Amino acid sequence: MVFKVCDRCKGTNIKTLLPKLKEMSKDAQIQVGCQNFCGVGRSKSFVIVDHIPIVAENEEELLKKVTEYLTKTKK
Q: Which residues contact 7 (CB under 8 A, 6 or more apart)?
């Protein structure tokens, strides 16, 4: 599993998001850098999980969506 996040977009606070993603999946690889999602990342939180972009209004909602996605993919 790969999580991709941008450290330049203002909609995502990677300082708080990264530890939570690591906690969700300890074996996941986390790639930090520009993800070419600038239009969305300007105002919304996002993470790309295994090539699937997940977008939300805030970090709390984003983490809920990531959890739902991980639950669906494990079945």
A: 14, 32, 33
Residues 6+ apart with CB under 8 A from 12: 5, 6, 41, 45, 46, 47, 59
pLDDT tens digit sequence for 21-42: 999 988 999 999 999 999 999 9
User: Please, which residues have CB within 8 angstroms of residue 2's CB and are 6 or more apart in sequence?
Assistant: 28, 29, 30, 31, 48, 49, 50, 51
| pTM of the full structure | 0.91
- Number of structural domains, the chain? 1
Which one, of 28, 1, 32, lies nearest residue 15 by Cα?
32
Q: Look at residues 12, 8, 6 and name the one whose alpha carbon lies nearest to residue 43.
A: 12
- Give the pair of three-digit tokens for residue 34: 């520009």
